[in-house]
Design brief:
Strand content: 15-25%
Number of domains: 2
Number of strands: 13
CATH class of the largest domain: Alpha Beta
Helix content: 40-55%
Low-confidence stretches: 1-6, 8-20, 154-161, 237-244, 308-315
Order of helices and strands: EEHEHEHEHEHHEHEHEEHEHEHHE
Largest sheet: 10 strands, mixed
Distance between the termini: 27 Å
Structural class: alpha/beta
Strand order of the largest sheet: 5-4-3-6-7-13-12-8-9-11
Shape: elongated
CATH architecture of the largest domain: 3-Layer(aba) Sandwich
CATH superfamily of the largest domain: HUPs
Number of helices: 12
Length: 338
């Protein structure tokens, strides 16, 4: 599908590229038929013992009970900052002592949380948090990482980075981010056990379909409804900063909806209630607005896996959705991308 400007009215309209769409559709649906089934057997929740991080831990606990899956906790001790010229100054605790202290603290936490769930495994790592979390997930072959997000935006986030976003970008398995800023609205148990509406962005690329096996598994297990959303990106302005508004002609909207319904037919269990939404605008804005309006309990989407300078220039829809979402976001990284 493409955007064109009407020579008569001057308005931007969205159209179907009939020449290429059949080939795109065939490739997409061939991919859908080959997608494997998935199971969440091992879940890793991260904590630094703050109230903020416990939002993610509580959600992971509730989800592990519902799926069901084995739950593990990880805490990462960061190396102390070394200052030149003060090597002889005695600090309160050495890194070795901190590791032992956090190990005992994590064991106490696991024991407190283990009521109503099988024994919780614990891992203490030493190093940069995002690197250690990613490495542990790979070593232990976890099926899912769950962590809370601060939801920082703008210059502050750009300066200090985000452990959650880095884990999402590099993890060997899907990552579920839980926004701590809305922790007071629901408990983790209510979020996971009350998962009733799942929003799934589909841009008709093969990459975007990689999340569908996870949609199918969670919707089937938790008896949730699914909403498939497709966002059409209109033409940019002459300054190439913001896209102009666009009208979606009724027949084009129906075509996109039919496409989404076929995606549902090829990839989701027929017993899963599914509806479709077609919008025009910035993808991350339309996705988060739709989630807010529909009171979605979770967004499940694929990350295209851009890293480094390319990702910094282009931005990432998944990154932005994680940052602004009103609900937890499950991100499945396309392993075909670097």
């Amino acid at each position: 599908m493409k955007a064109t400007r009407s020579p008569k009215s001057g308005k931007v309209e969205l159209e179907v590229n009939a020449g290429s769409e059949p080939r795109v559709a065939n490739a997409l649906f061939n991919t859908l038929r080959k997608l494997p089934e998935v199971k969440f057997k091992k879940i890793l929740a991260t904590t630094d013992f703050s109230d903020f991080s416990m939002t993610g831990v509580r959600y992971a606990m509730a989800l592990a009970k519902e799926v069901p899956a084995k739950l593990s906790l990880v805490a990462v001790v960061e190396p102390s900052v070394a200052f030149v010229g003060v090597e002889g100054v005695i600090i309160a605790r050495s890194d070795t002592e901190m590791v032992e202290l956090e190990k005992r603290r994590l064991a106490r936490l696991a024991k407190e949380l283990s009521c109503g769930i099988a024994s919780i495994s614990q891992f203490i790592r030493y190093g940069k948090p995002f690197r250690e979390i990613v490495a542990l997930a790979k070593e232990e072959e976890f099926d899912l990482i769950v962590l809370a997000t601060h939801g920082r935006t703008g210059f502050k986030r750009a300066l200090i980075g985000s452990t959650a976003e880095r884990v999402v970008r590099h993890a060997p398995c899907p990552v579920l981010t839980v926004p701590a800023r809305i922790a007071g609205q629901k408990s983790g148990a209510m979020w996971a056990a009350g998962l009733r509406n799942v929003l799934v962005p589909i841009d008709f690329s093969e990459t975007s379909t990689k999340a569908l096996p996870y949609v199918s598994e969670l919707a089937k297990t938790l008896r949730a409804e699914v909403t498939l959303i497709h966002v059409m990106v209109p033409l940019p302005t002459a300054e190439f900063i913001y896209p102009t508004s666009a009208e979606i002609r009724p027949q084009i909207k129906r075509s996109a909806e039919d496409f989404l319904l076929r995606v549902q037919h090829e990839s989701l269990n027929e017993a899963i209630p599914t509806e479709t939404v077609v919008r025009s605008g910035f993808p991350y804005l339309e996705i988060t607005k739709c989630a807010q309006r529909m009171q979605s309990d979770m967004i499940i989407m694929t990350s295209h896996g851009h890293t480094g300078f390319n990702r910094a220039l282009l931005g990432s829809t998944a990154d932005r959705v994680v940052r602004h979402s009103p609900c937890p976001v499950l991100v499945v990284r396309d392993k075909g991308n670097p």
